[in-house]
Amino acid sequence: MNGLAEAAGSFTLTRWVSRKSRADFERWQAAALRRFLDRDLPQAPFYRKPPARLADLPVTDKALLMARFEDFNIHGLTATDAWAAQADDGRAGALTIGASTGTSGNRGLFVISEAEKYRWLGAILAKAAPDLLWRGMRVAVILPQNTGLYDSARKSRLVKLAFFDLTVGPESWRAALEAFDPTVIIAPPKILRHFASESFRLRPKRVFSAAETLDPVDRPVIEDFFRLPLDQIYMATEGLFAVTCRQGGLHLAEDSVFFEFEPAGEGLATPLVTAFRRQTQIMARYRMNDLLRLSKEPCRCGSPLRCVDEIVGRMDDVFRLMSQDGPILVTPDVLRNAVLKADRRIDDFRLVQTGPDSVELRLPPMLADDAAAAAHQAVRALLEMRKTAATVKLIRAPLPLETGRKLRRVECRLGRAR
């Protein structure tokens, strides 16, 4: 297998598809999806035979995949063996094993082949930085854990990649990062904001927020520091799902994933994903836990791929409360906006549902008392308007940078959403 040839082919295909009309793209996607259903999906023991239509397949999720891991990958690799490989060198023979960081305490596994790893590299380069590739790129990836996905980039003469371990803290690798002088930075928004607050000496040409929800309050701070537009890479254990184009549109990766959407209320949707270019671990009609606000308009860049206006958060962090009219759900974006719109001086907070009818609002001590009071009242008023009896406790405490877990400004601690 020629890895760089796989990457080049994927790069070319990704760029070629992006120039199609929407109608032509949908015809191409339908044919690619049909090939996947006929050729690749039946290789997994869970399925065994091709369906007449995608809609004939059952909806799957992380709990099912982890319980029957060996039935969803074509090599029969068990979850026990995959965890052991992941804890060692991340390899099981010729396969690469990776794991999520477990945003909600529920870690997931993925397994991919060498060819798939290089296809991923070609696709992400085509989407994120095709104009920088030919000049040579120094890419700094700052995440809680390394995965074998990035090994493929290290074998290209056009890309120099350095991984910086978020869990050991930025103070341990600040000098190395500044010396690397990256042209592209991929990092969670809380770290990009930390770079701004600590005046890191960096001068990238492209900056991507990844691995966490990008809250509106972080964007202006990061963009002002780098003097660049902040782009996004929407990626999870389950695959690459969206990348920002040069016109600022966050495009779904419909050239490798077929998306179905389930309404989640408040104009939001949760995706069911079918990764039709994956052949090792089959992902079909897999229910994601994310809340998306889809764009109603095509992007001005001309790509046929649909756009997402906002990745709002996760279903796990929807507040689940009782009201006079019965159980209600309050989504993270509504809660976040209540706090941020209360006073323009608020630029950080934590809002946590700690019990069936109890909420905590944490604000830093240096925030003016009247701003804290306004935020407290705004959350109380929102919940009263929704006819809940929930109490909101205001806590004034520091909000330190946490490198051992993902930042969730709005968080529900009642257990996994159903």
Approximate strand percentage? 25-35%
Distance between the termini: 43 Å
Total beta strand runs: 21
Overall mean pLDDT score?
90
Main sheet: strands, sense, barrel: 9 strands, mixed
Number of separate helices: 12
State the low-pLDDT regions, or none: none
Identify the strand order in the major beta sheet.
5-4-6-7-8-9-10-15-14
Helix content: 25-40%
Radius of gyration: 22 Å
The assembly state of the depicted protein chains is single chain
Principal-axes geometry comes out as globular
**Class inferred from helices and paired strands:** alpha/beta
InterPro entries: ANL_N_sf, CapK_Type1_Caps_Biosynth, CHP02304_F390_synth-rel
Protein name: CoF synthetase
Could you walk me through the main structural features you see in this protein, from its secondary elements to its overall organization?
It contains twelve helices and 21 strands. It has helices at 3-17, 22-40, 62-67, 69-72, 79-87, 114-128, 130-133, 174-180, 189-197, 219-226, 332-340, 369-385, and strands at 91-92, 95-99, 109-112, 137-143, 159-165, 184-187, 206-210, 230-236, 239-244, 250-252, 257-265, 268-275, 286-287, 290-294, 307-314, 319-323, 326-330, 350-355, 358-363, 391-396, 410-412. The strands form five sheets. The protein has a nine-stranded mixed β-sheet. A four-stranded mixed β-sheet has the order 20-19-18-21, covered by helices on one side. It has a three-stranded antiparallel β-sheet with strand order 1-2-3. The longest helix has 19 residues, at 22-40. InterPro entries: ANL_N_sf (IPR042099), CapK_Type1_Caps_Biosynth (IPR053158), CHP02304_F390_synth-rel (IPR012685). This is CoF synthetase. It comes from Mesorhizobium vachelliae.
